[in-house]
Amino acid sequence: MSRSTLVVIITLLAGTALxxxxxxxxxPSHHPAAHDTSFAAVQARGKQAMGxxxxxxxxxxxxxxxxxxxxxxxxxxxxxxxxxxxxxLRDVAAAFGRGDFTTPGxxxxxxxxxxxxxxxxxxxxxxxxxxxPGGGEIRITTTDAEARRAVREFLAxxxxxxxxxxx
Length: 167
Fold this sequence. Notes:
Blueprint (H helix, E strand, L loop, with lengths): L2 H12 L22 H14 L7 E7 L2 E7 L5 H19 L4 H7 L6 H6 L4 E8 L2 E8 L2 H17 L6
Antiparallel strand pairs: 1-2, 2-4, 3-4
């Protein structure tokens, strides 16, 4: 892995802007999971649903005291990709607010744990989108204990299926 690729990955995970002159380059065939057909299928469906290459984007799925958050970012110099991510996150937040979880079901090729309960408790859950460098986040908040358990189940599944380390 090149030094510039490491800078991009560390920068994306830290949620900061890239240093001046840093470039985001990537060859998906070198990703360790690229040859895992199940993971590759999730990545391909993710690209179709989100409009950006999943191998060149960074996901986070964090549990928080009042719910959690979904973060999707890429190289901030990719302004078209950043706009695509932000539009996608706004669409997803609106759909989740209606109790519609078809996008994660499509991306993962199955019913996603937690979403049935999140749909039932949709009136008790708020989804707020915030722009971040290279993308954005969806904050998921609730005071309902059952909804919060479902949100955490959903986020845990996302971390596992997207192969994102806990934070």
